[in-house]
Design a protein that fits this description.
alpha/beta, DTB_synth_BioD, Rossmann fold, ATP-dependent dethiobiotin synthetase BioD, biotin biosynthesis, seven-stranded parallel β-sheet, ATP-binding
Length: 245
């Protein structure tokens, strides 16, 4: 809380080092943590591909709305800007349906979301350099939304390269990650020593510490406390409650 005992105004854009790294799970955990802190965050998925509607099984918005108790009963369609069936980059998925998205419309929708919601969690599609329109990549949407990027990466082998390249892309565009979050899943298990080495390498070579590691979650309706720890630390750093590092 700030000096006036009001929740801070913030926009966070959850982006990945690659596709399938855990952005939607991190978005869900982040929303739940923000609600627990007294905020009223709005979730938005500007571009959704790989599903025919916001209600499909593969819809990220539907997943988030199912697993955030405060969103129960609300319509996940309110969170989705554009939805395309093909599981590919939004630019090409839209082209397949002959429904090209104008860059101006995308930028306008992001600016509107930022102006209408004091607490906003946006989720990207794929990695940072995925094309959303002929002129705009996913990374360009972060600035259009006046948001801070939350970089999500795998915890195991290969993440150092992917994470450092993603941080470099952000920094070259004048942005710094609000936090770097590793996600550890049962399908991509990694030894504790490897995860620790990866965290050390990313922090040393990028200059930005990893906020923590989200462990495998058995019950997504009831995540363990450890799953929230990286998001809590990131938010505490952003709010000046603890020092980074």
């Amino acid at each position: 809380m700030n000096a006036m005992n009001q929740p801070p105004s913030r926009a966070l854009f959850v982006v990945g080092t690659d596709t399938g790294v855990g952005k939607t799970v991190v978005s869900m955990l982040l929303l739940r943590e923000l609600f627990a802190r007294g905020e009223q965050p709005f979730y938005a998925k500007p571009m959704q591909t790989g599903c025919t509607s916001p209600y499909d099984t593969d819809s990220d918005a539907a997943f988030v709305y199912r697993h955030v108790p405060e969103l129960a009963g609300r319509d996940p369609a309110e969170a989705v800007g554009w939805c395309f069936a093909a599981p590919k980059a939004p630019l090409h998925a839209a082209r397949d349906e002959m429904r090209g998205v104008e860059t101006e419309d995308l930028v306008r929708s992001l600016a509107c979301l930022r102006s209408e919601h004091a607490s906003l969690v946006l989720e990207g599609a794929g990695g940072l350099m995925v094309p959303f329109t002929p002129e705009a990549l996913c990374i360009d949407c972060i600035r259009a939304a006046d948001a801070r990027p939350v970089l999500v990466a795998r915890a195991g082998l290969g993440t150092v390269n992917h994470t450092l390249l993603s941080v470099e892309a952000l920094v070259r565009r004048g942005m710094e990650p609000a936090g770097i979050v590793f996600v550890h899943t049962k399908e991509r298990s990694a030894s504790p020593d490897l995860v620790r080495d990866n965290m050390e390498a990313v922090a040393m070579l990028s200059g930005f510490p990893v906020s923590g590691v989200v462990p495998p979650i058995e019950n997504l309706l009831h995540p363990p406390d450890a799953a929230f720890a990286p998001l809590r630390r990131m938010l505490d750093v952003l709010d000046g409650v603890v020092m980074p590092g």
